[in-house]
Each structure stands twice: as structure tokens, then as C-alpha cells.
Amino acid sequence: MITSTTGPQPADFADVRATNLAVVLRFVREHAPCSRADIAASTGLNKATVSSLVADLIDRRLVRETGLTENRVGRPATMLVLDGSPYAAIGVEINVDHVSAVATGLAGERLLTWRRAFSAGGSAGQDVAAVAAIVRRVVGRMARDERQVLGLAVAVPGLVDVQGVVRIAPNLGWRDADIGGDLAKALRDPGFTVQVDNDANLAALAEQRFGARAGAADLVYLTGEIGVGAGVILDGRLRRGALGYSGEIGHVQLDPDGPACRCGRRGCLEAVAGIGAILRRDLSPGEIPVEIEDTVRAARAGDAAVLATLDAAGRSLGRGVSVLANLLNPAVVVLGGYYVPLAPWLLPAVRAEVADRAIAPEGGGCEVVASTLGLDAAALGGAARVLDSVDSGRLPGGISRIS
Fold first, then answer.
1. In angstroms, how far is CA 27 from the centroid of its own chain?
2. Pseudo-torsion of CA 24, 25, 27, 29, nearest 10°?
3. What is the pTM of this model?
4. What's the start-to-end Cα distance of the chain, in Å?
5. Which residues form the HTH marR-type domain (predicted)?
6. Roughly what angle, to the nearest 10 degrees, separates helices 199-210 and 377-391?
7. Which end of the chain has fewer CB atoms < 10 Å from its terminal CB, N or C?
8. What is the pLDDT of residues 173-182, one digit of tens each?
9. What is the mean pLDDT of residues 351-380?
């Protein structure tokens, strides 16, 4: 059987066939092109079972045959690759001033990337209605492309419990909001699951599946939006904590005498190394991209004051990352959001601080890098969560072939 810590195991589910279908599908995703014999040899499933499972996956149009290969001993083998052409996974990120939507195919190929203006701050119900209108347009686009939606996962900048209830999202003005349930109702029971999670958690899933360090078993993603949060993957699995509130690294206090933080404390990581601290003044979300561009321009021109500010912010950020390095020993910490365009000036200071403060030699092997996924990482992570559900055995039923 496959022994991956992140994949489904044939003995883990009551429905053994559904589990084994997921095992085979995951193997094809990770090793395509591959043959039925390859699957049997690597998973421990017998050849007859593999043939039956593959036939089922072909019927569901999750896998397809793609010719023969002769580069092996014995008879040529029919090779298998992912299909998934009739399906789509949708991820949405709700932010203070915009909603991002991403749709992907089964292999992760982007089918659609949208960003729409959004003004949070009304009631959660009003905000959900606005988001539902955007989701309906995405679903309609997938329907026109003859793709069945496998699921929707929504990223929110706030505390989301294990049931998917948004306990508090201060930047959106939400508290104890069942966004998933309300969104499903607004979509009039759309026929697919609606999940909700913290934006850093979903961005971490995107990095693990699609990022430059895809496949990393121990990874932390740091958001660089208005707030600073951490999505934590350990031993190949996203870690949410007992109630779902893990990752609030932005409110780890670094300096008791430091600047005031939005949480009411002083000297939190967010207050000394968040985007607001780097730009040195409170800005509306719409103003931040312009200010970031100005900061990048000034840094490239060698502006001494700007370079000093970025160095100080990088060192403060490095102190926060060193806490993660000592506590979790991740292989990689990925800086996302608005940290990405500032990374050329932040990263040297961050890395120096981690090397100095990490207890283990050479920072415990912790590499600090900038994300390559852009500002849509959390939305892309929503799609990744849907695809993870498929990998774990939540497979669509058979589908008629589209002529």
C-alpha cells in the first residue's frame, strides 16, 4: 500500500473500494504516465483489483489511457494519465477590498482567475450575497465550459473554527458567521460542498500543491496582507489546532514597549513587521498597492531611509520566523502577499536573523523564500482543498461522455 502521510490508506475507510479508488487516483496524479502494473507494484493492490479500479476511474473520466510504451521488459503497456476534463474545483478569497476567484482542473491547471472589487463592512449577510453573485458567475462559466464543479472552498482573513464558522474576522467586521452555510443557501443548494477556512491555511495548501516547494512535508506560509498569519503544514498535513485557531503568529509579542497593535497589545509581530509598519502609516486597502510600488521604486533607487526601514522590518520579521524555526522546524517558510515585491530587501535581513536566533545549527535547515503564487494564493488554496478532498476519496460519480 502507499505509505504517504498525506494520502489515503486502504485500511483507513469503511468503504474500501472508494478508498482504493482514491489511492489509485493519487498515484496516477503523482506518477503519470504510469501503467496498471506500476500501480499494482507500488500500492500492493493485486492486478485484477487495479484493473477494476482503473476502469471505474476511466468511467468517471478522472483517468484516461494515453497510448503504449515499449521502454520496458515484456509486452508494451498502456499508460495512464489524469483526465478530469469534465470537472473543476473553485477557490475564493474574501478580502477587505476585493474577492479573488480561481477555478482549476483536476491536475491543477488554471481555468479561470478573477479579481473583483468588494467593499466589506456591511453585515455578513450582505457581504455573502455579494460573494454569492461572483460565485454564481464562476459556476456559470464552468457550466458553459461543460465542467461539473467538484466543490468550493472560501478563504477568510480571520479565526475559523473546525466547523467552518468564522468566529471573528476583524478586518471584515464579522463575528460568529456561518459563511459556508449562508453561502450555500444563497447559491440555492448548488449541488457541491462549500467549505470555509482561514486564508493562511489555504495559501499554505496552495504552496504545498502548486508552489515552488510543492510536496514539502513541513512548510509554513506567512501572509503579507493587512494582517500577518501563518498556515502550518507538518508531516504533510495542515495543522489547525484543537479548535482551528492555530497560526496567529502576527500577535506574538516581540517588543512590550513597541508600537500599538490592532489587537490592543503592543509590539506584536504585525505591529513591527506588517505592511502597515513597513509603509509607516495607516492606509486603506486600496492605497497599499500604490504605496508598495512607490516603496519598491525608492528601494531600487537606493533611498537610504527606505532601505533602513525595510532592513528593520526584515529583522523583526526574522525574529518571528525564528520562533517558527525553533518551535516547528519547518523545511521552508514562504513569505506571501505584499511581502513578495519587497522580498529582495526583506529576505537578507530575515535570513540573517533566523541564522542568528535559531537554536539548531544552520537555522535547523529552515529556508525562507518568497511565494511565486502571487496575491491569489489563498483562492488557489481553496481549489487545492477541494482537490485534496478528491484525493482523500470524495470522488464524483460517473459522467456521460461529452461529444
1. 21
2. 170
3. 0.89
4. 37
5. 24-65
6. 70
7. C
8. 899 999 999 9
9. 93
